[in-house]
Design a protein that fits this description.
about 400 residues, alpha/beta, Arginase, Chain A, 10-stranded mixed beta sheet, about 20% strand
Length: about 400
């Protein structure tokens, strides 16, 4: 498959003000599809940056189609870390004749990258492009966990057109469906109606209020460690730190919290794609939001390069297993601790027919607190919720 047909090159003007010095910047160390050059050879590439120039599905945020090059201006000027992964910037996916054409180009591109074990980092565009990212996994018939950082759930009405406020409903309604679990981090209750909260509970989806994560951001680590696909709405960051969004709110994550969440997620071997959406340069202030997103992408690459390859393996001696009997499960809950990173997981009981089908899902990331809860003869909430989904 030739994905180059969907792309146009990065403008040469982005390199005019690139600082020159003894130590090279990212714009001088990664493969970039520049005007006049051939499309990058993807042999050996591990991380692929790509952007989407389409805002037709971005509700009340027209102008976010111009975000990517503003982000590139800052990203290219950053110093790379001590990274071993080969990175390529594939350029800009052309705006299709219809928005469905753009969705097709995005999903086809990401499907190709995933099939070739290349990690896509997507810069949108509207948040509706999350649907196109999901379709790539559906085309591969891969059951996934998806996490979204957003102040809202984007459920909309099922009868509405696909846009940034309805894409999640479209994903849920897809048949066959390949979404195993959805996690929202940072929702703000005054933006959510009660029926939406009830639906999340009924579907056994995981939702975490902004205030809860503010109090201990480290609790977000096991949540994003369990996802295959991460979608980040820049409107989830408070307006003081990220004014470049027509729907920006006074409350939200801080800039450093956003960077930490992205790094947590990218350190997980499970995460195979990440997308950043809804940045609108028309509302930005001195490029603050574009600069922040460039740093978030830097942390995504940093996290990827710091993966420890420590997903639990029963044949490895790098893990310690603890069996904790509880009043509800006399046979006990199995907890697994990595000797390498001190990270925790738990095995969730599932029927024999589901064990192979959900092989990537019944071992659930957790915290030491969950282990303590089981030792106190109680079921950890995240264990019980996953148990209901698997049985």
């Amino acid at each position: 498959m030739d994905i180059s047909i969907y792309f146009e090159a990065v403008a040469d003007s982005l390199f005019d003000d690139l600082p020159m010095g003894t130590h090279p910047r990212m714009g001088q160390t990664i493969k970039i599809f520049r005007a006049g050059d051939d499309f990058p050879d993807l042999e050996g590439v591990e991380i692929a940056l790509l952007s989407i120039s389409d805002d037709r599905g971005a509700l009340n945020n027209t102008g976010c189609d111009a975000a990517a090059n503003e982000v590139r201006r800052f990203l290219y000027s950053l110093f790379p870390g001590s990274w071993s992964a080969t990175i390529a910037d594939l350029g800009i996916i052309r705006k299709g004749h219809t928005i469905d054409d753009t969705y097709f180009a995005v999903s086809s591109t990401i499907e190709y990258l995933l099939a070739n074990r290349i990690f896509p980092v997507v810069i949108g565009g509207g948040h509706d492009m999350t649907f196109a990212m999901y379709k790539a996994y559906a085309n591969l018939e891969q059951i996934i966990n998806m996490a979204v950082i957003d102040s809202r759930f984007d459920l909309g009405e099922t009868s509405d057109d696909l846009n940034s406020n309805t894409y999640l409903s479209r994903i849920i309604m897809q048949r066959p469906n390949f979404l195993f679990n959805y996690t929202n981090l940072g929702y703000q209750t005054y933006f959510i109606d009660q029926p939406a909260l009830d639906l999340m509970k009924k579907l056994l989806f995981d939702t975490y209020r902004l205030g809860l994560l503010h109090s201990n951001l480290a609790d977000s680590e096991p949540l994003v460690r369990n996802v295959d696909m991460l979608s980040f709405d820049m409107g989830a960051i408070r307006a003081a730190d990220a004014p470049g969004n027509a729907n920006a709110s006074p409350n939200g994550f801080s800039g450093d919290e956003a960077c930490r969440i992205v790094r947590y997620a990218a350190m997980s071997e499970k995460l195979s794609s990440i997308g950043f959406f809804e940045l609108n340069p028309q509302f930005d202030r001195n490029g603050v939001t574009a600069h922040l997103l460039a740093q978030m992408i830097w942390y995504a690459i940093e996290g990827y390069n710091n993966r420890k390859n420590d997903f639990p393996d029963s044949k490895s001696d790098s893990f310690v297993r603890y069996i904790v009997p509880t009043k509800d499960f006399a046979d006990g809950i199995v907890f697994i601790k990595s000797r390498k990173t001190d990270r925790w997981w738990m095995e969730v009981i599932c029927g024999p027919g589901n064990r192979e089908k959900y092989a990537n899902h019944y071992i659930v990331p957790c915290t030491y607190k969950d282990y303590q809860t089981a030792c106190d003869n109680d079921l950890p909430d995240r264990w019980w919720q996953m148990y209901q989904k698997l049985m």
